[in-house]
Structure formats: C-alpha cells, structure tokens
Amino acid sequence: MALSSYYNLIFTFLAFFISCMILFLIQKTKSKRVNLPPGPPGWPIVGNLFQFANSGKPFFEYVNENKQKYGPIFSIKFGTRTMIIISDEKLIHEALIEKGATFASRPRENPTRLIFSENKFTVNAATYGPVWRSLRKNMVQNMLSSNRLKEFRAARYNAMNRLIKRLKNEAEVNNGVVWVLKDARFAVFCILVFMCFGLEMDEETLEKMDKMMKLVLATVDPRIDDYVPILSPFFSKQKKRALEVRKEQFEFIVPFIEQRRRAIQNPGSDHTATSFSYLDTLFDLKVEGRKSAPSNAELVTLCSEFLNGGTDTTATAIEWGIAQLITNPDIQSKLFDEIKETVGDRTVDEIDIEKMHYLHAVVKELLRKHPPTYLSLTHAVTESTTLSGYDIPTDANVEFFLPPISMDPNIWSKPEKFDPDRFLTGHENADMTGVTGVRMMPFGIGRRICPGLGMATLHVHLMLARMVQEFEWSAYPQGKKLDFTGKCEFTVVMKEPLRAMIKPRLVAQRVKL
Length: 513
Prior knowledge:
Elements: H1 2-32, H2 49-55, H3 59-70, E1 73-78, E2 81-86, H4 89-98, H5 111-116, H6 130-142, H7 146-150, H8 153-173, E3 177-179, H9 180-197, H10 203-219, H11 224-227, H12 236-265, H13 278-282, H14 296-327, H15 329-343, H16 350-353, H17 357-369, E4 385-387, E5 390-392, E6 396-400, H18 403-406, H19 453-470, E7 471-475, E8 486-489, E9 491-494, E10 499-504
Parallel strand pairs: 2-6
Antiparallel strand pairs: 1-2, 3-10, 4-5, 7-10, 8-9
GO molecular function, one term: monooxygenase activity
Cofactor: heme
C-alpha cells in the first residue's frame, strides 16, 4: 500500500511537470510569433510572478521600476497572462481615443470574479458588445444623467447633514479627533444605497450592507492560481469560501430587491420607498441578445457594482483632499472664503457649486495629484492590433499606468506641488474625458470611461464644501507633518489613515434650505 502511494505521488508529479512543460512550450512557440513590447525576462511557467514576489514591493512600484528600465510601453508575464503596461499620454490617447473601439473590451476574468460578476454581467466587466451596450446605456441614461441626478438632491443633502452630525459626535468623544476616510465613506455609501434600492434604511442595516460589500471586495482579490490555473486544485478551500460569500451576498441583498419590487407593484404600500431607484430600471431591462430580464442573481451583481464602484473612489478622494487642505492651510482658508462669499451663513448646497471656481480648481488638482487608482481598469482589444510598433494580442491584459502622467513636468508645471491656481491664473487645463489630449484620467477615458464620473465629482465637490464650511481642519497630533505615501486597497488610500482635528467654525445662525 505504501509503495502504491509512492508510485501515485511520482506519477502525479511527473504529470504535473510534463503538463507545465507542454504549456510552457506552447506559450513560448506562440510568443515567438508575436512582437510584444520589451520587458523583464521571466521563468518558465510562472513568468515574472516570482520576481515580483521576491521584490517585496507593491505592484505599482514594481511597474514603475520596470517603466524606468523598459520605457512607456512594456510587457510582463504573470503565469499564463501577458500584461502590456502603457504610461505615455500620447500612446494612451492613441489606444483609448483614436483606436477606442479596438481597445474597448475587457480580458477574461479569473474564476472567483466570474462568480461575483455573474459571468461578466456588469457594466465594468462585460466584454465590448451587446450586453455591455445595454447595461451601460441603461445606467447612463436612466440613472446617471444630470436630470436624474437632480432627483436625488434631497438624499445628498440629508447624507451631508448626517456626515456633519457624525463628525461632530465623533469629535466630542475624541477630543476633536475624527477618522476622515471612515466617515466620508459611510456618507457616500448612504447616498448610493438610497439611489440603488429606493428604500430608507436604518444605520445598523447600512453598516451591515457596507460590511457585506467590503467582504466581496476582499474575496475577489487576485490569487496565484488566477495566473497559473494548473495550481487551482490547491486552492479548493478559497473557491469554496468564495461560493459561501456569494451565497451570503445573495441572501442579504435579495430581500431588499423583493421589497423594492413589491413597493413599485403596489404604490403607497411601503412608506420607506422613494419614487425612483436604480433597481426600477433593471427589473424589466431588455438586454440585447437576451429574451429574459435580469435574474435575481444578476440584480444582486448589478446593485453591488453600483455600490462598490461609487463608494471608495469618492471617499478616498475626500481623504486625500482633506490631507492637502491640512498641509496647505492657505488653500483651506481661500476655499472657506469662497464658500462664505457665495452663500453667506446659509448651508452650502449643490446648487451653489457651479459658482465656486476655486472649489472646482481644488477638486481638479486633487484628482490630478491623487487619482483613485494607480492603474485604470484593465482593457483588452477586440482584435489583434499594434501600438508603437508592437503587437497587442487579444489575450493580453492592457493596463494604463497613471502616476507618470500626473507627475510629468512636460505636461504640468511643478507637478509635485499641490496648486489649484494652475487651473485659474496658471491657465492649465484638465479635460478628464481625454478627448482633446490625455493630461489626467482619474475615471478612465474613451468608451469605457467611468459612467459615474459626473456623480462622483458632484459628491466630491459637495462633501469638501460642506466639510470646510462646518469645520477648520488641522493635523493630529498638532503640528504633525502628514505622510502622503499611498497604498492600494481597491483604491489608493493613505498608507497611514488620516486622523484629523476639527474645530467648528464660528458662524451665525445657519440658515437651512
């Protein structure tokens, strides 16, 4: 029996080794026919995976190191995946604007993400085609248009009041100290939940839903078997856990979906229901090429995408923004003066924002200096093409590396300086759509530009205005020099989470709208 087990072990090892060598030879033969951008030499089977792991660096630092060596377009291999990384503004414009349709798809997803995306049935994950067109058109036209966003003005106003109250309560019990990211994130999440489900929820329910969304994000983090699929049998526990989390997600969210369905089928039956929600656009959505409306599982996926896609990007922008206002008190004072001049002692509201030119400059500079991610969402080409003389195959992950653009002295004057005036007296511009040229792309550009760009920037403007109007912000401990090192947690957050001192501003009796 022991000898039999020994031979089985030997046979399994040989089968694994031979399979790996066959896979390696197939990939090597294939790669000889393709003129990929240059990159670091890799090992058989795993490519550059171990080199990256042994570097001990975050992925964005590993990417930046290779950019310095190989230039603005290079390739690395992680197992079976080829990544082509682009960091030059002209090449990005050529790819996403001039050749927009060709670069508008998404690569294959790893097995865990397929579970949570319901086989790529989301706006972000769908390949370029009829499903993507149907889902995106619905979100943009029926949920995120300027007219539709105006319908949720009261929800935003209430969320801002809740944010200010939370900050005041937290400061009272912590000697004036608050956690910026946590409070900002919850405020944004409240708005998005209201928009998504059209139901009023108590704080305990909102906290549970937020916890559920965070669990999903943690579960879909990449694993080594995503890049070396032959190792997947060794990750059966992780796959089982992913299925368990998906079940928890389904069981938690479906009751809210059904509550909303009953509310619109029986108007007036639910006093917590609003007149409109994102779900309303999805119940009977006609998706090109499909006969049936989205299933409950697909509705869970689309609602989760709406919540996760809009929460962290806005909240992290607020954290970086407050950090810059603390570090640059003259900018904070100038922003407060503009708010005061615009609204007096009345509570600032979103109808006031378009009049605040300095606020707009602050937000532009914030998004330039601190884009939400180091790399935009991964693209893929719909057909093999070329860029800068190199082949871009259909099975490659095309990544766009953003920091070099924000910090390029050929694009920006004194790029290392946080200077909102560059957009006013400095006469620099910031076309975030990238159509006229790529100078910054915090929300992507081209056909896959984030559909929530308008909503996200509205939230950032409104939150910063309210937070600066209500409080004077300073470092904690007093006089501390803030560390602007970032780390990636779905979005780029401050490596040392921002705790700040707040002092209520002395204003006359505030006039409510």
